[in-house]
Design a protein that fits this description.
Low-confidence stretches: none
Number of domains: 1
CATH superfamily: Class II aldolase/adducin N-terminal domain
Structural class: alpha+beta
Mean pLDDT: 96
Order of helices and strands: HEEEHEHEEHEEH
Strand content: 15-25%
Number of strands: 8
CATH topology: L-fuculose-1-phosphate Aldolase
Shape: globular
CATH class: Alpha Beta
CATH architecture: 3-Layer(aba) Sandwich
Distance between the termini: 53 Å
């Protein structure tokens, strides 16, 4: 039987609501798009419920799900729950996952021709945990959007097994997933990623593909 600490859940629910309001205000999570989660233990996570406006989240809009995506509290899990639990199951060091739909990420993912976006030479790369130099190359896989989330989650896992876990990935015409040891680190990764993707989009205006 999966159990969790109610106080941990309450703290996670409050933090996810606060984060949702920030992401909505920045235009990265319009309307009911996006989903966010925080690990509670080695069996389950707190997750935003499906169909909730991300600028108006309350603790009642957060539920607990196990690694199979089954709800353990009231609420309807996001259709994309398995993309969160895939990450938690593969790496016990992941404590939070953020999925957003910013205009920059959606547009760039739609027009980028390769199956991987490689970025190097930007000082901001060092915002990602473990990155110490702008001279490194960061690789972000791109996946075709798929309504079969179990199939997409399996594809993400297979790619990570072959190419490494990295820091984030994009879904074409959809958005990004990024993660971190906790919600603070995850938010930092997302903020860095949004700016790096913005740099890349601006470069495309100057140097079209």
């Amino acid at each position: 039987m999966t159990v969790f600490n109610p106080q941990d859940f309450a703290r996670a629910a409050q933090a996810l609501g606060d984060t949702g309001r920030i992401l909505y205000q920045r235009g990265w999570s319009p309307a009911t798009s996006s989903n966010y989660s925080v690990r509670l233990n080695d069996q389950c996570c707190a997750l935003t419920s499906s169909g909730k406006h991300k600028g108006e989240l309350t603790p009642a809009d957060i539920l607990v799900v196990d690694w199979q995506g089954q709800p353990l509290t009231n609420g309807k899990p996001s259709a994309e729950t398995l993309l969160h639990t895939q990450l938690y199951q593969r790496d016990a060091g992941i404590g939070a996952v953020l999925h957003t739909h910013s205009p920059v990420a959606v547009v760039l993912s739609q027009i980028w021709p390769q199956e991987q976006l490689s970025i190097s030479g930007w000082e901001l790369q060092k915002a990602f945990a473990g990155e110490t130099t702008h001279e490194a190359t960061l690789n972000f896989p791109l996946f075709a959007n798929d309504q079969d989330i179990a199939r997409l989650a399996a594809q993400v896992e297979a790619t990570m097994q072959q190419q490494g876990q990295g820091h984030a990935y994009l879904i074409r015409g959809h958005g990004v997933y990024t993660w971190g040891k906790d919600l603070t680190e995850c938010f930092r990764h997302l903020e860095a990623l949004e700016n790096l993707l913005g740099y890349q989009l601006e470069l495309l205006k100057l140097r079209p593909l």
